[in-house]
């Protein structure tokens, strides 16, 4: 998170008990804050979703976790760029198609009852794909589960922004290990609220920093109200600080500039003024 300047990471299948969370917070409280929702029936053995927040980039004291489905779906609300509010939904869907349809309906019902705004980002391990290009070899998804998933996305008004930008591309985030034939799929995705899709950029799929059969999906977000940043201030290469030819030239022209400034009239005359002389010197 520090090296890549990541503000928020959504984690799935965390298997964290309360004592694990407390231990992590004590060890790393200066670096990041952790919000976790565990499986109430077997917290250390299955499911679990969490958010890790980089304290150097995020105002963690103004963040809150809202659990929709314990251990499976949770929403993080936070402040981003002064008074801008962000809402992020993180899910870890069941593997089996049967429970999936019920799960997506549960998430939708719980969100409606929560009174929370629609999420700006909807991320996680969905364990289902919505495009034939997202599996290799391709196979049909369970129709009931897929319909429930699409109903949720429609209600939340979120889009698969990466797929919209690359409609024919193939990029996988998960592969089966120890099986023949090996299969690949794009189970890990970040959906974006339709109004801010154009404010997302620099999509990446990279190796996970810890042992996992899933890859890390990331995207950067620049709110429309964020100040525009230029390319930075021009500076001299450090090596010129010890370059004798350069330093002699600066000294000679600097002394000439000083003499020209002293000879300037009290009132400006045309192009004879300190700012123009300084500009030419630079």
TrEMBL record:
From what superkingdom does this record's organism come? Answer: Eukaryota
Q: What is this protein called?
A: DNase I-like protein
What is the organism of origin for this protein? Auriscalpium vulgare
Q: What is the lineage of its organism?
A: Eukaryota, Fungi, Dikarya, Basidiomycota, Agaricomycotina
